[in-house]
Amino acid sequence: MGIFDKIKSQMKGDRAKDMSDVAERKANEKTGNKYESQVDDGQQRIEDRLGMDRDRPEQP
Known about the structure:
Blueprint (H helix, E strand, L loop, with lengths): L2 H8 L2 H18 L5 H14 L11
Helix pairs in contact: 2-3
């Protein structure tokens, strides 16, 4: 089981999105927002890989 599978299986819905946002904020804080666009791009790629789509409502 890969790390993405492990994270995906442990987190659900809003909690996963909240954790993703926290990780993005921390990365931006550590870099002084110097790499904000790259961090945002990375967050979006990870969320896509985990099947988290912020534009679509959660599927039951």
